[in-house]
Amino acid sequence: MQYFPLFLNLKGKPVLVVGGGEVACRKVDTLVRAGAMVTIVSPQIEDYLRTLVDSQECIWIQNFYSKELLDKKFVQVWATTDNPELNHQVHRDAKQLGILVNVVDDLPYCDFITPSIINRGRIQLAISSGGASPVLVRNIREKLEAALPHNLALLADFGASKRNDIKQALPSVDSRRKFWENFFADPRSDKAETRAELEALYQDTLKSGVSEQGSITWIDFGDDVEMLPIKALRIMQEAELVLFPKQCPYSFIDLSRRDAERGEYASDSELADQLSKAKQNQLRIVVFVSPDSAQFNLLKNNDLHIKLGSQ
């Protein structure tokens, strides 16, 4: 992973953009929508930027760039001109002041990059190839746009509005997480077009109750993580505890739920002890095992065992 993924709160924070052309238009538009206090430095600017200036959504310094215009108050600096020498000068000046800087389309001179974004109300999805393949990123974005539910904004707003209500109904963090997993897994959530439909589903899910019963799923690992069945991926995302031997490739473990507890086991007795403790807490457990190993058969009982490449 070359870049650390991060969503930055720029609301009310000063950002400097050097340049006033089409590239600056795209960057300033996104920055303004994020609530940043944008200052543009350029002798001339595009009509769209003039509109933003006239509506007092950003400030325009109608002049050529000079080092004196930089100030440590800026949290970001963007160099968007078509003059590489000027852009690199902006980069040097910003670095001297310890300000994060992005020279557009010039990766060696970027402290950060901006991903391709899918915006659905409160939901934001960011996709990046680290600048390696913008066309591939666009292709991925198009596929995601087509696959995502049309009502994501509605779902996010509804979930946000129920934060206090669900805390009163279900005091336990685990119970609330399982409730929302059941709520969003219900096909009616993706099809809902109104808040009233979601409210009905919300009440139905509350009445159904939240199962506190734990489970154990055994999943084979191998050399190719892409051989994992969809069912295995779904269960891995629901797991509260992930257990694995030392030889299990990290690519398998990494696909499990991010906030799941993780533990390594070295023998069947050690694994048995870990499972015994986890069962007492009614946890949903995923155990990664080598496909050619039979040493854990006595521990499996009637648990689900998912093999690579299975349906």
Characterize the structure shown.
It is elongated and about 75 Å long. The protein starts with 13 loop residues before the first strand and ends in a 5-residue tail after the last strand. It is an alpha/beta fold and 311 residues long. A hairpin with a 2-residue loop joins strand 6 and strand 7. It folds into four domains: 101 residues, Rossmann fold, CATH 3.40.50; 34 residues, 2-Layer Sandwich (Double Stranded RNA Binding Domain), CATH 3.30.160; 57 residues, no CATH class; 92 residues, Tetrapyrrole methylase, N-terminal domain (Cobalt-precorrin-4 Transmethylase, domain 1, 3-Layer(aba) Sandwich). The protein is 41% helix and 18% strand. The protein is built from 13 helices and twelve strands. The protein has a five-stranded parallel beta sheet, with helices on both faces. Strands 10-9-11-8-12 form a five-stranded parallel beta sheet, with helices on both faces.
